[in-house]
Amino acid sequence: MSAQLTDALVARAVAQSSLEWKLTHPMAFGLTTASPLQRAICRIADGIPLESLAFDRAVIEALGHADIPSEAPWEMAILSGIRTAKSLIAACGAIHMALTCDVSMLRPGEIPRVSVVSLRKDLADVVMNHLVGSVKASPLLRTFLMGEPVGDGLMLRHPSGRPVEVSVVAGARAGATLVARWSAGAIFDEFPRMVGGDDGVVNWDDQRRAVVHRLLKGAKLWHIGSPDAPYGPAYEMVVEHHGNPTPQLVVVRAPAPSMNPVYWTPERIVEARAKDPDGAKTDVDAEFRTPDEALFALESIKRCTRTTPIVIERKPGNTYYAAMDPATRGNGWTLVVVTRDAGKSVMVRADEWTGSRDEPLDPADVLEQVSGILLGYGVTTVHSDQVMGDALVKLGRMRALNIVQWTLSGPQKFERYNTIRMQLDRGLIDLPPTPHLRADLLHIRKRITPDGVRIQLPQTSDGRHCDFGPALMLALSKALPEPADQAPPPRTGADDETQRIREWVNKRWGTKREEW
């Protein structure tokens, strides 16, 4: 057998080898100390049975104690702490996708592309360095390189002889790599920080939409990173799919020591927690964090959110309160209904209608539906802000619905929102598992201004303005109990003040002291 033929056979064997082999073999990417979880991730991506790895505790917990589909998912999310070889795995995955994609349907001259989309240029450079360094250092992978790497990419020779480009880009430039070509795969690095265009970062929704219908047969989408704020596409993906894998999507979420126990020794973990307890939550534990300026804590919202049901039917003897936040274009028109039950303020349901600039909502139609919902709870009054003013009140009156419009100052709003925060922290509010509700609450910010603390409702990447927040605030303002120990309002006059204090002390401690 000629040396040329032997080289060709070796090259084909390397190209068709598993992702695990490429990642761990000394003559490929060389991660010889790969953990059981890192190996399991490779096997899941290839649709290879986990075998004994299925019984590894770190693997079981990272998969949410769920059975993995036998076939390879075409979409994966890998969320873990830092220093866990995520960028190296991303680089190896890009090479693997380029060498194993099905190019049989391509026309002559068409060059498919594997895109690695990172958040910033310095992060993209890390992946690019792994790509170039590993390929050049490997005598087996180097044979696939067509010319020298240029700029932010390199060209590889597919086993079919076709060129396949691997492109690593950052930020807004990423969009150009995902359109106008067939895709052999796409990897979104630092995925949890891709929360949309409102923060000047990669708009993941648009990027994914641009590539998903350009994928070649067998091409994959990967989403990699460390958890960040508890909202956005990464957080929603974990909430909805971790522990619930499908042939389409598998979500892996793991603390840093489970991914890389060689680096994350017990001593290093203790040191990380001592230096920065808050940072260790994301960097070590792979937990989502509550932003410093967020009004509501993630832990409080999670603790107060019931699993089921989404809607609680009317309970005889209970009084119900309703509030809404009207909108017709882009923002959601939200409605919440609350009651007091078993010592808690219970949101029995949360509804939303969403229009667009091209197809705005019809207020009359929405109010007809609102009226029907509230009738089931014996409610004929709904509280609202002054959006659409008298016109909305008139439309409501035509449907036997009394709309009470509120105008609140900044301090009044903060007082009401802050009361809700305290009730949530004490576990005294029961929330439904309604889509958008948790994200809306977590987006609400408190800002310190020269005039005091103010509430801000920032716009999210999908055009929302925390739309459930105002409705919840108005409804709970009616349903929350008055603080038991609240002192009466101040009055003028020494005699009146003395009597006021005496009455309050007698009520608070049950005493009958006439003289002090």
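Above is the first protein from milestone M3; the second protein from the same milestone is given next.
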Amino acid sequence: MVASHQERVKAARRAARRGRHERQRRHRHYHPGRRLTRDQRAVAERLTAGQVDLVTISGWGIVGQFVALLEELRFFALLDVDGTGFKRVMIPIARLVLTYQVKILLGIGSINLVPLRLFRDHALLTLIGYTTTQIQAGFCDRGQLAVGPMHKNTLADAVERLSAEELETLLNETVKRLVQRGFFTTSRGHFALDASDLETTRRYTGAGMKAVTERQVTKKQEVVEVVRYVYGFKVLIVYEVRLRLVVAAKVVPINEHESHQTLALVRQAIDNLGPGVLRVLVLDKGVLDGETLWTLKHELHTDFVVPSKDTMHVTTDARSLCRRAADRDMIVMQERAGHQTVRHDGTIRWDGQVTVVGVTALGSYDQYGTAEHTKQANRKDFVANPINAVVVTAWAGTAYAAGHEPVFLTSLAVTQPLAVLDLYDLRSLIENTAFRELKQGWCLLSYPKKTAAAVRGHVLLTVLTFTLANAFQTRQGHRLTQHGIRHQRAEADCGTVIVFAGEHYGIFDIEEVVILLGLIPATCLRVDPDEVRRRYGLPVPDALPAAA
């Protein structure tokens, strides 16, 4: 009886501690460290008086403004995740996530380069919340740290232990905050949904596998088809093509068909954006499914444009009808002239020329409807739901052969078929400004560990950082978005100096620092000494007393 009473008392105490911890967790706002604010004028005054705490050279001063944007969005409050995969938390999860984001932002591909390129930059580590003691000695006495606050594997393990739900919630809540701050007020409502393969080796645990048929040319100049087995994962995103912002994303095995995730991803995007923002969705033919398209239009109130497949009856009907005379009702033809270009071989090409035909209310797509509607396709009284099509009959001055014209299905009106085709052309932006940029400029394929969880964590955090960097254009002008992060890194000046003074920091050109210390170089290549003096309230040369 005594033992039973003691167990009940212990259980009650444990429950009280859990409740107290939960209440504290619910009401606190996580910040990665002490709050430093940027104040150029205050730091300049301290610098001229010789009262500064730390002066160091940073590889990329833009991180300071990027962190300021996160402050404005209250992004750090979103990092108060449970961390269900962490058994013991010595380093705040917010600090780990932000550290990995800075790694991504600086273009550090390999996790093995983090100690050399990130942990040696004391200015950046101080900026994101690490103390001098943590930078020099780490968080504990375990292990032998050559440099930095933690072992590189600790950072890799942290990315792996974040759950899919936590990572997706972090992206979704960030998008909602961007909406609240007005980042989508200029959106035209044109979005693209597409998937991109993330190939790995078979040694990655949890990787999917699919067979890919490729054409190869033999030594005898014969074209043969070869089956290759590809291992890896796949990332799916919903992308605002003009603002270049990812509004929903998911990582799945490479063998999972993207059509299985289309509706869930679009619903999540609409939930993040709010009603009326996502108006037109351009899709790849890989997600072509009649029930999905019907749901997009009639349940989610989203119009679509998607290429049709050659084997579909609706494609055959659209191609046959496009040859009929235009009647401005059911069949509408439009042409864009383009301009003439003479090739090196003397042939003429009309760049930009295109001829399209809009075909209204096709009734040969039996699968376009609800699941119950599709089951009745073989009945005699079955009536298919109408769908519109745009057929391209000529491109760059060359007419397509009959039966080989590209066909696009759409829920939009096709009275202006060129406008519909132009909308689909926006899908190329998701390939060029999203997937290609992420893989070539943001090290999307450089995973910290060979596990499915690590790949998922790395990919979603990279997509999140990419979106925040593109949203950063409102504070840094349009340079970051228009030129891409690789150009921004290339243009970053190695002469940037970060000065810490009390609760403030300032980012100066090295020539500015010398001028503020009272030493005027005979030749200044980057700044004007008089302008620097006026900016920080120092006397200009004309006002200086004459030398004795």
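Note on the second protein: The two ends are 97 Å apart (CA to CA).
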